[in-house]
Amino acid sequence: MNSIDLAFTPALDQAQLIRSKQISPLELIELYLNRIECLNPTLGSYYRIMAESAIADAKVKTEQLMGDASALPPFFGVPISIKDLNPVAGEPCSYGVKAAQKRIAEEDDGIVIKIKQAGFIILGKTATSQMGSFPYTEPPGFPPTRNPWNLDYTPGGSSGGAASALAAGLCPVAQGSDGGGSIRGPAFCCGLVGIKPARGRVSHAPAGARLGGMATNGPLGRTVADAAALLDVMAGYISGDPYWLPDPDPSFLDSIHQPLGQLKIAFATKLSPLGEATPLCKQAVIDTVTLLAEMNHAVDEVVFPNLEELIEPFTILWQCALTEANLPGFVLEKVNRWLLGRARRVDNGAYQRAVGQTQLIARKLVAFCEPYDVLVLPTYMHPSIRVGEWAKLRPAKTLEKIIHWIAPCPPFNASGQPAISIPTGFDPNGVPIGVQLVGRPASETLLLALAARIEEARPWRQKRPEIATTPSLTN
What is the pTM of this model? Predict the structure, then answer.
């Protein structure tokens, strides 16, 4: 196997190659660090490359591999990336803020502990939009993160670096987070599988819930199986969590093989008051539900609930999250600075009303989905935008553009329902598009099983960006 094929080998397969001693953790880490050195200056996928610690960890694990491999954790020696919103002890955690670039984390995030316990080796911290606020990754003071499928376009945000790195073969699997589409959007833009887990599935320890429970950590993978297996690693209660769900039985990975009877599938391509998805994104939904109908599932087009009453309270909660960081406005880029100013004018009563209104609408969304097993929607309303496309707009206009683009995602952050974005094809610019599958509360196992059937029917994993397969990257 050449180095390019190995770089794009699924994480689960890499774990087996290590366990069977066909490759060592050190060889795998060196392969990815070489690819990062070659491609990261162009892509801007990583803000922090943890080469020294990754090599040291890989050397220790390579020595451990000489013993009994049967007792090793599931992803022993497999590389992974961590988003730069999640602290890794002893490493910078900038949150996409240039002024905070040298701030060193004192302890690991809860999911980082779980990831390390699973045997992963951390390659580095991936780029994020400033404070995780935007569906593109272009914070001032950092190079813009680019989509490996077409460098003129964004990989999305705020997990843009994670998606860019994974799509380019700069890691085999990636951790991200989603407070309004920040996993699903980058998966959509980069041709990946991205899971926003159900509320309470993944801990936010040691901190409390983010955005009142609307934000969650989750996995990005090139295959449904990899994403499911990483969700198994990340999921689970940590003492003191304000929300939690019991562990699934079977596991998320095992669930992708469970039999599916005839499912009731709903779909929509129009979201009032924002209108219809663009023809490409609409067609992606139509093609997906056509395939599901061919699989003998019952498919029904529905009128999605009007989102008018959700937009304002969700925006209030989203912008008020900026005050938590306690950063001065002058270190923020212009839209965040404008949002922070708005947030500071929100009094306690207005904030609590926004929480209450969001929860009322969430109940309506869950009730709307209850008659169906799965809802199929566009992930985003139109394909990826160019890097810097909205940079010169006034903040209010930028916010308007963001709300329209990401509209299908935030409702399920509000409701806490699980959702998975899966790739379906490309736009005329060679940039991926996809759809999202939304389930009832805590129904990730069903979503994963259905996503796996779609993946089997329309395989994707062999598709690779041209930049990631140049001969210079082959050993």
Answer: 0.98
Domains of the chain: 3-473 (3.90.1300.10)
Question: Whole-angstrom Cα distance, residue 475 to residue 472?
Answer: 8
Per the annotation, the verdict on 182 as an active-site residue is yes
Q: Which residues contact 98 (CB under 8 A, 6 or more apart)?
A: 139, 140, 141, 142, 331
pLDDT in tens, 254-301: 999 999 999 999 999 999 999 999 999 999 999 999 999 999 999 999
- Dihedral sign, Cα of residue 156, residue 323, residue 195, residue 228: positive
User: Of 45, 61, 83, 415, which one is the catalytic site residue?
Assistant: 83
Provide the H-helix boundaries in 158-244.
160-167, 184-190, 224-234
Mean pLDDT of 240-266: 95
Q: What angle do CA 248, 369, 232 make, to 5 degrees?
A: 20
The percentage of the chain sitting over the pLDDT mark of 90, rounded to a whole number, equals 93
Active site residue 133: no
From 45, 81, 129, 158, the catalytic residue: 158
Please name which of 173, 197, 198, 167 lies closest in space to residue 384, comparing C-alpha atoms: 167
Are the C-beta atoms of residues 151 and 42 closer than 8 Å to each other?
Answer: yes
Residue among 72, 76, 96, 75 nearest 86 (CA): 96
Nearest CA to 304 out of 376, 379, 197 is that of 376
Decide if 239 is catalytic: no
Spatial strand order of the sheet with 432-439 comes to 46-49, 121-126, 79-83, 173-178, 216-221, 193-196, 419-426, 432-439, 374-378, 264-267, 298-301
Helices 11-19 and 224-234, axial angle in degrees (round to 10): 70
Q: Stretch 398-410: mean pLDDT, rounded?
A: 98
Cα gap 169→81, rounded to integer Å = 11
**Distance in angstroms (rounded) separating the CA atoms of residues 456 and 332:** 44
pLDDT in tens, 110-143: 999 999 999 999 999 999 999 999 999 999 999 9
Rounded distance between C-alpha atoms, residue 120 and residue 15, angstroms: 10
The pLDDT confidence band at residue 208, using thresholds 50, 70 and 90, is confident
